[in-house]
TrEMBL record:
Phylogenetic placement of the source organism: Eukaryota, Sar, Stramenopiles, Ochrophyta, Pelagophyceae
PANTHER family attached to this UniProt entry: DYNACTIN SUBUNIT P25, GAMMA CARBONIC ANHYDRASE 1, MITOCHONDRIAL
UniProt superkingdom: Eukaryota
Positions of transmembrane segments: none
Organism: Pelagomonas calceolata
Entries under SUPFAM superfamilies matching the protein: Trimeric LpxA-like enzymes
Protein name per its UniProtKB record: Gamma carbonic anhydrase
Entry-linked InterPro entries: LbH_gamma_CA-like (IPR047324), Transf_Hexapept/Carb_Anhydrase (IPR050484), Trimer_LpxA-like_sf (IPR011004)
Length: 228
């Protein structure tokens, strides 16, 4: 019994002052919201950046130097989602797939190529992006839509089911329609955007840390030992 009591004593929680200090030190630890769903497990490359507040669920493959930013939801439940190298999925984007259970002809994945930019708050549903495709902020891609390599969907556009944005084309509006060919500077901007976000992601991966709340910081300050 004495041995058992000694073991319990070693495992007991430290006094409140020690607890406050430990809690404060533990806050910078990076938390990733990646979830398995049954046998469907996310596969994120070591060189990918997944923001702590993003949610990645099920069959989701994120390649090297790709980035999934804050408050994104990437849900690969009834089909898979793949995100290619150096592609950036910006803050607040929602990405999903399609299922024959909803009246379609079969489960449809979402496939995102390399060097793509997906702007803030975009919605992508069971669609395909070729390499170097661009989706503007708050744009929507419905089921079975495609942006071919180097195509651009303008901010706020709604690409309705089954439509295809051709290579080097700019589509916009709701519903989205062909507007004009991309200018050389716009095409170059797409690739530059992807390169820039690789750098942004490395900066965030190396430097992000969670700070204590005001109350936690105050508690830690008042609980710290005072040396004389």
């Amino acid at each position: 019994m004495r041995r058992l009591a000694a073991s319990i004593s070693k495992c007991a929680l430290p006094p409140p002052r020690r607890l406050a200090s430990i809690a404060t030190r533990a806050l910078p630890r990076r938390r990733l919201a990646c979830y398995a769903l049954g046998d469907k497990v996310p596969d994120t490359a070591a060189a990918a950046f997944i923001a702590p507040s993003a949610s990645i669920v099920g069959s989701v493959d994120v390649a090297d130097d790709a980035s999934v930013w804050y408050n994104c939801t990437i849900r690969g439940d009834v089909a898979a989602i793949s995100i290619g190298p150096r592609t950036n999925v910006q803050d607040g984007t929602v990405m999903h797939v399609d299922s024959d259970a909803l009246g379609g002809s079969g489960s449809t994945p979402t496939v995102i190529g390399a060097d793509c930019t997906i702007g803030h708050m975009a919605l992508l549903h069971a669609c395909t992006l070729g390499d170097g495709a661009f989706v503007g902020m708050n744009a929507t891609m419905m089921s079975h839509t495609t942006i071919e390599p180097g195509g651009m969907l303008a901010a706020g556009a709604l690409l309705t089911a089954g439509k295809t944005v051709g290579s080097g084309e700019l589509w916009g509006g709701s519903p989205a329609k062909f507007m004009r060919p991309l200018k050389p500077g716009e095409a170059a901007f797409i690739l530059e955007s992807a390169r820039a976000y690789v750098g942004f992601a490395r900066t965030h991966a190396a430097g992000i840390r969670e700070l204590p709340t005001r109350d936690e910081a105050a508690t830690a300050a008042t609980s710290a030992p005072r040396w004389r």
